[in-house]
Amino acid sequence: MITKYQSFQQLFKRLATFHPGRRLLSARYQSSINVENLHAEQVHMEQHDLAEKPRILVTGSLGQLGTGLARVLREKYGTENLIMTDIIRPPKEVIESGPYRYADILDFKNLQELVVNCRIDWLIHFSALLSAIGEANIPLAMRVNIEGLHNVLELSRQYDLKLFVPSTIGAFGKTSPRNPTPDLTIQRPRTIYGVSKVHAELMGEYYHHRFGLDFRSLRFPGIISADTPPGGGTTDYACQVFWDALTTGRHECYLRPDTRLPMMYIDDCLRSVVEFMEVPDEQLKLRTYNIHAMSFTPEEIVEEVRKYVPHLEVKYKPDSRQEIADSWPMVFDDANARRDWNWNHEYDLSGLVKVMIEHLAKRFDKPLSMKQHHY
Ligand SMILES: NC(=O)c1ccc[n+]([C@@H]2O[C@H](COP(=O)([O-])OP(=O)(O)OC[C@H]3O[C@@H](n4cnc5c(N)ncnc54)[C@H](O)[C@@H]3O)[C@@H](O)[C@H]2O)c1
């Protein structure tokens, strides 16, 4: 009957932590309690544990966003409750940081096995081919971004998982209002990435209405981080400019200097996922929300970076990514997220540049002691 807890003594100890207000450990009570009641308590306790600490699987977790999200979620829910997965060979520090498994998003059986064996409650689906990479390999993008999504939707339906799938500014197109872009508007993107993300938003909403699936999605702006290199998106220049500023002092930008796009610092992005996943279902009026933090052009961020690295040289050489950027929102309207679940960003442009320079200066071992820094 008592499986997980080897002895009554162990179980009593655990129940006492679970019900600290109840005097379960009094000797008289211990001797009179019956095994059936104990078993019921144990089941109830395990359900409570689960409800308090979800077991989470992150797909594509070795990308720009996944590693940081795994760290944040592990701090909150416990290391063992977060399973990182991807198809690439993980660095040593990932293996040492907690559970990591191979999982190809196209292999339904393997995913099913993981969900069952690891008793997963939440699935965070980060595997994707991003905008620029997707255009360079359309058949693979269709498989990973569309077939992969079908797999996680079906798994989540079958095992009643809470499912998070990020969307993007790339889910809009030239015919959408661009400044600002509201949640509900025309969505006619012209990249395979954008089309697959609109597909994900609509399929998730369909599964929600048809099967009651707890599907949640946030449309992220371009995300800027110092931890991992960006994964082939159109907003990558806004990460690269910091690396270049602190290494060669020269940056070649593939967008025109006046190209305005919405952006966000990674800490705000990761916090948005954690906060959004915890909002009670009935509080959400939409299944997909825009979230916004700041909006800038290459020349505006370069001006801000030059406050720390005045000698930074920049050349502008627009390539195929310019056309993609020209079809994307310039500013996101995220009033619904702010109203429905209190979304708020912390980092604006000057806060972002300060924290990125601090992080990378530490990494490249460059001292930051003066007001202006000459590298
Ligand atoms: N980074 C951004 O600026 C940004 C902005 C908006 C939305 N998003 C979304 O956030 C999510 C994560 O983005 P990211 O920047 O970390 O992407 P990334 O490209 O850095 O990482 C994606 C990961 O998916 C993995 N992957 C590829 N094929 C796979 C397969 N068949 N099975 C399993 N994994 C596979 C890759 O190995 C990679 O580690 C994506 O869905 C992306 O669309 C990102």
CATH topology of the largest domain: Rossmann fold
Task: Return the CATH class of the largest domain.
Answer: Alpha Beta
Tally of separate helices: 15
Contiguous uncertain segments of 5+ residues: 1-35
- Kindly report how far apart the N and C termini lie: 67 Å
Structural class: alpha/beta
Shape: globular
Small-molecule binders: nicotinamide-adenine-dinucleotide
Beta strand %: 5-15%
Domain count:
2
Radius of gyration: 24 Å
Brief summary of the model shown:
By secondary structure, the protein is α/β, with parallel strands linked by helices.
Your description of this structure?
This protein is an alpha/beta fold and 375 residues long. It has 2 domains: 9-45, no CATH class; 128-363, NAD(P)-binding Rossmann-like Domain (Rossmann fold), CATH 3.40.50. 45% of the residues lie in helices and 13% in strands. The chain has 15 helices and 13 strands. Strands 1, 2, 3, 4, 5, 6, 7 and 11 form an 8-stranded parallel beta sheet that branches. Strands 8-10-12 form a 3-stranded mixed beta sheet. A two-stranded parallel sheet has the order 9-13. Strand 1 (56-59), helix 4 (66-77) and strand 2 (82-86) form a beta-alpha-beta unit. Helix 6 packs parallel to helix 8 (138-159) and helix 10 runs parallel beside helix 12 (298-305). The longest helix is centred in the middle third of the chain and has 22 residues, at 138-159. It starts with 7 loop residues before the first helix and ends in a 12-residue tail after the last helix. Residues 1-35 have low confidence and may be disordered.
